[in-house]
Each structure stands twice: as C-alpha cells, then as structure tokens.
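User: Please predict the structure of the protein below. I'd like the answer in structure-token form so I can feed it into my own downstream comparison script.

Assistant: Understood. Taking the following sequence of 1146 residues as input:
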Amino acid sequence: ELPLRTLFEQPTVAGLARKVGMARQANAGVPIAPLRPVARNGTSPLSFAQRRLWFLDQLEPDSAFYNMPVAQRLSGHLNVEALRQALTAIVARHESLRTTFPTVDESPVQVIAPALSVALPVIDLSNLPASDGEAEAQRLATEEMQRPFNLAQGPLVRASLLRLQAEEHVLLLNMHHIISDGWSFAVLFRELTTLYAAFCSGQPSPLQGLPIQYADYAVWQREWLQGEVLEEQLAYWKAQLAGAQAVLELPTDRARPAMQTFRGARQFMTLPKSVSEALRSLSRQEGVTFFITLLAAFQTLLMRYSGQHDIVIGSPIAGRTRTETEELIGFFANTLALRTDLSGNPSFRELLARVREVTLGAYEHQDVPFEKLVEELQPERTLSHAPLFQVMFSLQDARSKVLNLHGLSLSSVSIDTGTSKFDLTLLMSEGAEGLNGRLEYNTDLFDEATITRMLTHFGVLLRGIATDPDQCLSQLPLLTTAEQRQLLVEWNATQAGYPQNQCAHHLFETQAAQTPEAVAVTFDLQQLTYRQLNERANQLARYLTQRGVGPEVRVGILIERSVEMVVGVLGILKAGGSYVPLDPAYPQERLAFMVQDASASVLLTLQRLLPGLPNSDATIVCLDSDWAAIAEQRTENLSSAVVADNLAYVIYTSGSTGKPKGVAMPHRALVNLVEWQVRHSALGAGARTLQFASLSFDVSFQEMFSTWRAGGELVLIAEELRRDAAGLLRLLQKEAVERLFLPFVALQQLSEVSDSEGVVPSGLREVVTAGEQLQVTRQLASMFGKLRGCTLDNHYGPSESHVVTAYRLRGEVGEWAMLPPIGRPIANTEIYILDAQLQPVPVGVAGELYLGGACLARGYLNRAELTSERFIRHPFSDNASARLYRTGDLARYVADGNVEFLGRKDEQVKLRGYRIELGEIEAVLSEHRLVREAAAVVREDVAGDKRLVAYVVVHADESVTGGDLRDEVSSEWSVELSSELRRHMKEKLPEYMVPSSFMVLEELPLTPSGKVDRRALPAPEEGRREIEEQYVGPRNVVEEVVAGIWAEVLKVEQVGIYDNFFELGGHSLLATQVISRVRKSLQVELPLRTLFEQPTVAGLIKEVVRIWGDPDVVEDIARIFKELEHLSEDEVKLMLSEQMQQVEHR
C-alpha cells in the first residue's frame, strides 16, 4: 500500500508507476493483512464504528438520530412484486441487513439471522386529490423517518411503497446507520436496478456472490488494527490533536444546553457555475482537490465567526480501503478530525497549502476509527456536545448519476429528518445549476435567520476567494453591501439636535430661571430650591474665579455626600473650571497621585476633612469655615470664557499599571447625554431622583444634571445608606423617590430586601442600571412584577464616554431575558463591533466594541500614548479628526439591531479548552432559592492549576436540609450546600461551566462605584480543597455495592464515593457495563446517560433513590444482593423472588 500523498506528489500515470516500482524494489509500504471469511459461531464482534453507534443508542434509546431514510419517486409502470423480490434478494445477499445487536455478558454482539423477507406494504393514496396526496406522502415519509429501530430485536431495515397514482409511486427505505452508510445506498440502488430488471423479465439474479460479509470485516479490523499498526496511527493523531480546543465557540442564539438534544433543521444555498469553475481552477493551480479548497473556505468562515484560529472540523471518509469491501452494504465510514492552524493571517492561497498537508496526513492515518480515537484521547466527558469537534463538512461526489429502474425514472424526494448530529453539518455538492450547499444545524443553538445569514456570508466569502485568492483571510469579504450599510450607517443614524454650544451649568441656569422656587436638592432635613442652589453656586464660582479658576483649570473636590458637594460641583463649573472628584474613602497615596496628576490648583473640602487631604501647593477652600467669605460674593449668574469644548470634569479610573488614569470629559459630550436622558425619560417635570452614585463615578453627573434639566428634585443619600439595602428601601419609601440609578449589585440587593420583607418601593416609576451586566434574577423579576408601570432601563457606557447605548425592558416581566441586551446607540453616538483588523463583524458574531460620535472624552490626562492607543482614527469617517474609542469590551449585534454585552476582552477566560461565560454562570447561580448574590471567577492560585470558583451570599431564611442555614454553612464548607448548588448548575449548564468549588461569603466585596470587586474575592480555603479531593469510602451498604461494581469494572482497588468515573479511566463501553450491573443489583431502570450526568457513586445513588422514591427500599435491595453474591444462580432466583416480594409489599 502506498500513501495517498503519493498521488498528489506524482499526479501522472508514469510518475505513479515509478513510485510503485520503487516501493516494490525497496519492499516498502504497509503489509496487507488478508481479509477472509470467518466461521459463524452464533455471534460476531462489532466493528469499532458499530460499537460507538450502539453506545449512542444506549445513551439515547428510542431515538431516530441515526436513522438513514431515503425516498425515491418512481415514475412509470411499476412491478411491485419484482421490486419486493429485488429487495428481499438484497437482504439475503448482505448479512448486515439481517443483523441485530443484542447484549451478551454486558457487551453487544452481532447476531445474523439466516433469512429475512422484506415486507413491502403498499399504501394507496391515489384516491386523494393530487395536492393532498403529496402532502400525505410527505407526512408518511416523515413519520417513517422518525420511527426508531430496536437494535437488539430488529429488523434494522424497513421498506414501504406509497401509491400516488397508477404510475406514480414513492419508495421509502429506512436503515439504521449501524448497518449502513452513504456508500451503501449506492451499492443498494445499483443492485436494485440489476435485480429489478432481471425479475421483471423472469430471469434469476445475475449478481455474483460476495466473497466476504461485513462480519468478516469486523473480525479482520480488530485483528489487524492492533499492536504496531495501531500505535503508529494513534501516535499521529495524538500529536495532531494535542492541545486542541475542546469546543468551537461559534456565536449561538441560545446557550448550549446541558444535554445535547440533536433537534435540527436545514437551510440551502446555491452559487452560480462561474464561482464553482473559478474555485476548481484555483484547486488545479494549487495542486489540491476541490474538497480541500471548499474545506479551507469553510474553516475560514468558522474562524471569522468564532474568532478562533485553531479549527477542528470532522469530515466523513468512506473507510473502504480494501477493494473487497467496495460492494458490501455495511457501516464502513469513518470520521476524520481535520485540525488546521489559521493563525498569522495567511492569504487564502497559503491556507490551501496548510489544509492540503492536514488532509493528506489524515488520509494516511484514516484507519484509526473515530471511536477508538475518542477512547484513546479521553476528552472531557460531557453530554452537551460531541467530542473532538462539533462541526462536520463533506463534499458529495459530483459524478452521481440519475437512477433508472427498468423503464422507471427515479428522482429523490427530500425528507427533512428534523435532527442534527452536530452543531453544524455542511454538505456541498455540484449540480447542473452550480455549487449547492446544505447546512444542517442544531435548533437548540441556532435560529433559522442565523443560519441563513451564515450561508449568505459563505457565499460572499467563496465569491471573494474566487476573485482574489491572494487576499489575507481577514480581508476576504464576508458581508453583503446591504449588511455593511446596515451595520455602519443605518444602525448609527442617531443624529438629533441638541444645544451643542452650551455648557452643562447653562442647562441648570435655564431651569433655575423657569422654576426658581421648585426644590432642586434634598438631603436629610436640608432643602435648596433652584434659586437658592443657583445663588450659592454663583457665589462660590466668583470666589473660585478670584483664585484663578477658569477654563481648563482643574479643581479637586473632597467632600462627603452633602448639599455642599452639589454646590461645589456647580460652583466649579460656573467658574469655568473642571472638577476632579476625590473620594474621602480613598487611600492617601491615591489621592496624592490624583491631585498631582491633575495639577489641581484649588481643592474644595470641609474643615473636618482637612486631615484627609494630601500635601500639595493647591489653594484650599473649605465650604463650611470659608463660607462667610464666599457668601459676600454676588448671587447673579456670571459669565466666563468657558465653552462647550472645555473640560467639565476629570474622573480617575483604575489603570492596568496600578496607577489611576484621569478621563477628561468636555461639556459638549455631557450636554448631549443630559438632553437625551430628558427626552428618553418616561417621567414628567419635577420628578424626584435619588443621587446614589459616588461623585467619582460618572453616573453621578447623569443623576444630577438630567434631574435638574427636567426641573426635578435631587434626593441625596447618606453614605452609610448606600451599602444598606434595607435602609435604602426605607429611604425610597419615605422620600417617594420616582427615579433611581443603581449598579446591578445594589439593585439586586434592593430587590432581595424587597422580596424578603414583602415591601416594594411603590413610588418608583423609572429605574436605570449601569456599570456592570444586568441579570434578571428571581428577586428582581419579583420586585418589578409588583412595580406596575415602572420601567427598567439598561445603560452601557465606559468612563471614556458617556452612556452610549440604552435598552428598556418591556412587556411581561416573566418574558424578560436573563441577560438583557444593552440596546442601541443613543442620540448622536455611534457604535461599531469590529474584529482585530477593524473589519465589521456580522450580526450575531462577537467583536470588540468601538464608540464614536458626540459621546467621547477628550482622552486621558497626561497620557498621550495611551490616548492615541485607545482613541483611534475613525476608519469609517471622511472627517480626518473623527475618532473611535476602543473599549476592550466584547459585544455582538442581535438581529433587531440591539447589542448584547459579552464581557471584557481581557477577562475572557478558558478552562480545559472551554471558554467560560462567567455572566451566564452567575445568572444561573442566582436563580437558586438559596442564593442571594453570586460571582464566579477562574482562579489559578497554584501555577498551572486553573479552577472555576463560585462565590455566593446565601439567604438567612432558606436551608439545604431544613435546619438553620447559618449553622449549616458556618461549618467548613458544607458538603450538602455545595452538592445542591452543583446539582442545580448541572441541570442548567454544560459540565465545564459547573464550578469546582463553592465559597459562601457574608457579602460580595464591592468597588467604590458599586461593582463586584473580583480581585478582592478570597482564595478558596485549602481545607475545603482537601475535603473535595480526599478519598471518601463507602458509608453504607448501597455505596458498598455501587463502589464495588465500579472497582470491578474499572479494575481498580478502591473507589471513593466522590471519585469521578471518567477520571478513573472509565469510557463509553465500561459505562454501559456499570449501568447494566447497577440495574441488576439495585433493580432499577437507570438510563445510561445518568452516569454522564452523575459520574460519582454518591451522585448515581441519589438518582437511584429518586427513582425508587424511598432510600430504605434501596438499602434493602442492596443488602439482599450483598447476601446473594456467593450463591448459585438457582439459589439466587429463589431467594431473590422471596425477598423482592417483601420489598414490594413494603
């Protein structure tokens, strides 16, 4: 045997002949083991491929996932009896069609029936109108296709005939994949053509006898594929797939379920012949097959969709490397895992060379069955997706011919199986009209519109490759012209008028003139009207002007939450300066850096806070002790040289280097925000808004000035109440607050208290949340369900811009998404979701979020290099001065133009090859009745050992076991609590997204702006880790029985009740043995999937107890079987009958 590569290296007959001669002289090549008939001794072993399908059938019994239906329309005069005889002859000719797969000694075997006549029932639909007949034929075809086979009982082939008219029939054939494959259908129809013609003419079968049968091949495969042959091929695959990504992270419409369902649908595409011919021409130029070219194109599409450059795709191969197998019906097909490195942004032509090498290497090592490969590589076991790859690609032979059946013309009838074995399966073929594609997809993951878009993008990509294969992969076109316009222009058409030449304080002054006696600010027992606040701010402004404050002068303000703080902000702005918030709670070192970095020439504070001020040369103004002098200033509005382009504030945010960076925000941007907020608000004039945010958080500006612009009343909250949810609820009720801006953590805490106390802040009419991802938790939904008429808005905007997108949650609360989108761009702002090469990504695909328009800050104070790195030239604008801000956030568009936030780009975490969605994990955790708040992180406290850790704050009045929860969780890591939360997570999420550790905290650490401070989350206690990892032996007779079964099957000395079956070396075939023995020992119908869902002894027993409904019964049964272990079979039957009667009576 010569490797397939030889044909690519020597593509002429002469060259190939020379290679054959050289190989013979050198005695090279692989020695060919003979494939001969073997004796039939009742049963035969399964081939590797059959064994995996048998296992999958056990995992999902009574399913039609691996049915192989085909429907052929027969036009012309049909001899039904000749057709029945032909089908019966084919079944007699091929043992595989008479084979069943019962279990003997806990392992499956092939049993070949000596004979099997094919029933060919005729269902007469000819009495129906033509359209009704066609519809009924489709219904019957779908019904047949969805009927499962029983592998143990058979038969595994079915045929029926639908009569539409006297000379119009539909032949339905259905076989289980375990006895057939795609090649087999070609064999079947070739033989059917020959036999039908012979039987119609009264002639005997002209077919020659088959030298071997499939069972002979199965024996040969097991004898040949072992030792050096197997090891050499396995070595290749182990090296080829080492370190491959566990999952191809395609953008899905829904989260991957914990259990793959195989529900599916199909979409189609057709490209003109000119594209197909251009791609074939490229293939010839590069010395590759058409398959390789299309595979490379599909991998490019998947790279652009997923953002991953290490792509593994499955591809079927006939698996008939022996000529003796070519005329057999049977399951020979194998699946190759084709892994390609697309990194480095190569041209498509360069990619072809890479894919060529990958494909040839795979072909040379194709003899290792996929099932054996999975067994050897032992990827992490999960029921949520297929192992090694989740996407398949195949190219159908373009030379397939139209079938004729002795005077009948045959044409295929399309049947939608309604299933999908993988996330995606792309089947390409060439037809008379051009290049055809059929994309089968899992409907649990994808919507029809998403798949339609994907096929459209693949078509654009293929056209681009055909036009210019020398383009880099990132530059190849993907979007249609209409999509580009939608993403770049239409969804950014946000232009709206606003007073862009005014400053923020001018908006306040306008309102003060209109409603001078309305209350502007309230704090405890203090109140100021608009006139009073305006006059005090004017006095302070004049005082500051005399001390050098003016445009571009920064003034530090270190004042606790108070009326003085509000006066200070307004006074600084009216003087033309920009305020720099200095939080009294900040460390001295941080405050000193901020004052120095901002070059603050004046510091506003209060007398009692003077000790907290850092040393500086700045002029200090105390708004209490200096107020007598300030009050001597005039009270009318003053004019200053400040303009809309001057700075309004500099707010410092945490920097990656540890030093904070000052974001410099001009008036014009903030005026745009305020004007939009007022127009967007559902509240009328005079509404009361709580001022909750720290002055160091940019939302505080939005709270203050959007309230004042609308003539509303700003209600200040005392600092100690900001972290007291119960106190906050009381304040909202007392002050009849109508609008509330809260970060999600604070909003969740408020809803928790509201839920537990049965009280809602009834005055609320508008709630805005921002700062971190909103989660619609059970408690939050409960509160808003009772707050009739109160809106909930989800805002997004980093400190480097003002709010950029907004989404208002509408409709019934029960219909709100768990993780709502962040919405669309607000007035005069732009958003772009781009890839690493600044190309717009398609709808649904993740990319980095870039912001533009009137929302942007000037940049970072004194950080020119960082500013130019993050504020880049606008690539889609003709204005040379236009900029975009690179947020570092990941997002994606959904079909309606809203944006979904996906987290920080630098916080995207991977664990064991899987991308971990922390927001989704936290949302699912928060659904549990025990959990009040939750956070999840991937930690690496020990080098090289990454672990997913969940942190929860629990309810004081809920319990795992019915006792006092505080007692339960105060002990070192309550096993019951962890077990309960882990069970909850496994029901909702794939195994890889279930935390390995759960840590209970009294409260989650927060940043000053109210976000969860993930860096302050403590490392799990070492004691907890030891508890999780130590050996815990069986504690009762049930655990002894199950652990004993595991130890016997796995051939290990001891099994702990928390040991993972698959980590101990378990695999699919051993799993079937374990479940079989547990069924017998504990007299319970336990599905095979249970072991994947509960891969520990303790977890498996919980499921057994759940099925029986009584732990005492399970213990009685286990004790009986313990006692029967050493008795004879007859003694067991007798004793078992007596004992089980007693158990059932109980």
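That's the full token string. The longest strand covers residues 931-942.
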